[in-house]
Amino acid sequence: MVDIIVVGGGHAGCEASLAAARLGMKTLLVTGNLENIADMPCNPSIGGPAKGIVVREIDALGGEMGKNTDKASLQMKLLNTKKGPAVWALRAQADKITYPKEMRKTLEQEKNLELKTSLVEDLIVENSQIKGVILENKERILARAVILTTGTYLKSSILVGSKKKSEGPHGERPSLFLSDCLKKLGFNILRLKTGTPPRIKRESIHFDELTKEEGSKELLTFSYDSHDSTAYQLQVPCYLTYTNEKTHKIILDNLEKSSMYGGYVEGIGPRYCPSIEDKVVRFRDKQRHQLFLEPESIYYDDIYIQGLSTSMPQDIQEQIVHSIQGLEDAEILKYAYAIEYDAIDSKQLKPSLETKLVENLFTAGQINGTSGYEEAAGQGLIAGINASLKLQGKDPLILKRNEAYIGVLIDDLVTKGVKDPYRLLTSRAEYRLLLRDDNADLRLRQYGYEIGLIDEQRYQKFLKKKEDIKNLMEYLHEKRMTPQKEVNEFLKEIGSSPLNAGISFYELLKRPEFKMDYCKKFLPLPYEDSVLNEVEIEIKYEGYIQKANNDAEKMIALEKIKIPKNIHYQEILNIASEAKQKLEEIKPETLGQASRISGVNPSDIAILSIYLKKGIKKHD
Amino acid sequence: MGEKMDDTICAIATKLGVGAISIIRVSGPLAISKVNQIFEGCNLEQEKSHTIHYGFIKDKNEILDEVLVSIMKSPKTFTREDVVEINCHGGILPTKRVLELLLQNGIRLAQPGEFTKRAFLNGRIDLTQAEAIMELIESKNEVARKVSISSLRGSTSKLINEFREKLKMIIASIEVNIDYPEYQDIEEMTEENLKKLLIKLEKHLEKIIENSKNCQLVKNGIQTAIIGRPNVGKSSILNHLLEEEKAIVTSVEGTTRDIVEGEVTMDQLTLKIMDTAGIRQTEDVVEKIGVEKSIQLLQDATLILYVMDCSKELDEEDKTILNNLVDSKTIIVLNKSDQNQVIQKEMLPFSHIVYTTTLEEGGLNSLKDEIIKMFEQGEMDEDDTQLLLNARQVGLAEKAKEQLNSVFEALENGVELDLISIDLKDILDTLGMITGQTYQDEILDTLFENFCVGK
Prior knowledge:
The complex is a heterodimer.
Chain A: E1 2-7, H1 11-22, E2 27-31, E3 45-47, H2 51-61, H3 65-72, E4 73-79, E5 89-94, H4 98-109, E6 113-117, E7 120-126, E8 129-135, E9 140-148, E10 157-160, E11 163-165, H5 178-184, E12 189-196, E13 199-201, E14 211-213, E15 238-242, H6 245-253, H7 276-282, E16 290-295, E17 302-306, H8 314-322, E18 332-334, E19 337-344, E20 361-363, H9 373-391, H10 405-416, H11 440-451, H12 456-478, E21 480-481, H13 485-493, E22 503-504, H14 505-509, H15 516-522, H16 529-540, H17 542-559, H18 577-586, H19 591-595, H20 602-614
Parallel strand pairs in A: 1-2, 1-9, 2-6, 9-20
Antiparallel strand pairs in A: 3-5, 4-5, 7-8, 8-9, 10-11, 10-19, 12-19, 13-17, 13-18, 14-15, 15-16, 16-17, 21-22
Chain B: E1 9-12, E2 22-27, H1 31-38, E3 39-40, E4 51-59, E5 62-72, E6 83-88, H2 92-104, E7 108-109, H3 114-121, H4 127-138, H5 142-152, H6 155-179, H7 191-220, E8 222-228, H8 234-244, E9 246-252, E10 259-266, E11 269-273, H9 276-282, H10 285-300, E12 303-309, H11 316-324, E13 330-335, E14 353-355, H12 365-375, H13 391-412, H14 417-435, H15 442-450
Parallel strand pairs in B: 1-7, 8-11, 8-12, 12-13, 13-14
Antiparallel strand pairs in B: 1-2, 2-6, 3-4, 4-5, 5-6, 9-10, 10-11
């Protein structure tokens, strides 16, 4: 008997089992192959817009992905720097050998955590409560809670052209029985599809014909605590190339040979990540599509062609690759494929990621219909935390939409559900100005500490940063610049209007062209860059941040109004029929959640809110 | 409080006593079976949807009326429920008896507007269409009727939705650059381009608002002030207008005294005559409420009828007031044209001047023609009726315009596009409130439909 069993050792499973073990739970991680722990079967990168902020949030809460990426980074970039700070995001190219190796090391060193190689075939459920799992060798392991993080392995099939094989990534054995077991328990099963591009041999590429894409020269890290950034000299570059009309002709001429267009795929593919055949068909007038050549590892030769995901048969893949500039002689080491797998309907989950149907059963990652390493890890962390809190008799950690991208992600999953694999995008976050790369620790570290994933030393460091920010802000309000000659000359130099009267540095910083760096000319500022940066953003964007906070407060007010579990929507007068149906299906926990269900209109929410306040009853 | 949604309701849908046929509409799950119980002719429960049947309505053995019964099954009906319409032929009494019989059989009498409400709640019509039905019922004149019908057909929704589509496309093209920053093939939205696109949208929005406001005026009645010095004939002009045209006189509680508002409907137009009582009782607005107050009245009015006795010389007081009149909304009424005309049209620098007399039949026709000419909308075509329907909708459109203005300001101040995009989403929400939509996932749909991104 253990406290928590985590089924699956991908990015969700790693975070879930680490969090549970670190919170004192006796934890068992069951995975089909220990070699594939924290495997990266698709792109060799972690982060990017929205996703990169998720990695920062995981780190702020005490998860592992940020630290582990810092150890494995081949190069790192801060993206979107020409835009506002709300959308700045880190992205690393991560070594596909180092990342899993380091993560496995961390798991093996965790004292409450045991690893086991096996496939889970069935769940032990009594009175709608999870009691444990049954392995493929019929061994029964009892547990107080179970977290399913099975990724794409539920009934997975790999498709290349018309060929379809029942297997997971890397030819691994799929989990053939678990999704039927879930179906029997009452879960709705979705069939999803995703795909991956071909890998080619480094030496066979004509790099001299291609544009080099380098990482940042600055030393960047995801983690607020690690110093494992990769020096610029050691960084590995990416390269840029394009498809061309010849490529497109090959694709169009052979369209029906692809698994997708040949009708061999039943699953629904992701909209944000179409295959090259989809792109060519849907955007016929585009003469070229961008491709990034990304190194997978410094320990082997594979180069990943980002942008060329396809389900064409192997001979056509050869033709496609060879039609591309720089890849004329490229040797394909691994062919592209599409993969289909089962997922559950995430609307059947509570915001804690516990299933509504089976108590103490949690799910996280691709099984919930998401895609992406970061989305999986974020959910895994929350599932691990909430399973532990539940067993400790505590309230779950539910991050609000104005607190974290992880909150947006989970709220979208449980409130709206998914039709195609879900990817986080900045546009999904209505308060993205509050959910920045720079302030993930300010938003979440307190939670991490209270739960018990952030130790005292790191917490003290965080408190110091908060104190510094407060002091610096006050200092800049107090200190004034007077209209002296040299000051006005400097202002003129940077294209800013001269002063007529004295103003505070705080006021000066509100000018778009006046940077925090300039303050250093006039003031001693003995603070870390992260503190200076934070204060600068808070001053410059104060108006917008204030507005976002006001909007968020309105949302929180709705979030505080709980909807009783035994509500009968049919009884409520004047709510539209479609809205009633959706409310019955999703059973939102708060009025706020109800307001985000598609098909539930503001007028329905107004009526529901009056009902909750006054309890309008059916009149007869 | 509200009514239940799951029962069956009925009401007489036509005006009682007008026309030869009255229609009783029945809507709800029991509509067909309940009507079938009192109908003799065929078994309505076995008939196809959207068919008409001849027969009789019988109360036990007594025939109440000879009728045609239309049956329309859910969901392709006005309320999206089962609907039956009984066309009664026998005049008021038999229709009422048929209705009573239905009520005796357990069907509930519908509340005013309840069919429309059901149509709205069942997703058959959107908010603007629901409003259009209410406005249609209350339309005072031809313009109001035409605009309501057009809006009911979806023209207001279409207008707003087209506008929102354009805005969504702009937002999506900003967003795609944020979420896919390294796709150099996607054209980067620049401040300059954005400004150009938004200026176009602003002009479009301004036009919608302006047209709608004009139309509101005509639809709801033109605030009209009749002013002039004592004994020039204001009250007889007013009385003649009220007598000759459809008029309503209502008493409105005022602070110092009751203000009486007179409403005169002339063909397409409705005049709301301000302070009617003042004109009638004292024949001297200027004197009673003071020059200052009357100038206030001039500002509030959309139409000013300045009445003068053309048989008398202009005096200083006339000149003061004439100097305060805005030419574009004033008609100078030279009354008592039957007498010696001392004041000539040419002496006054105004575009709209008419001669009137209240002593002769048709002596006010020149005035009526001038009013119609001033507010003439011409023959309204499809485009002209694509308008916002009421003050709520216009108010939201104006709010959207204000929000757009602050976007221009932000652009001037060099605010980054990802922040501008947040402001644009607010505008989308404001406009969505006109039709009752919120944007939710619409932007993502637009983004993925229009931009080629992915691994």
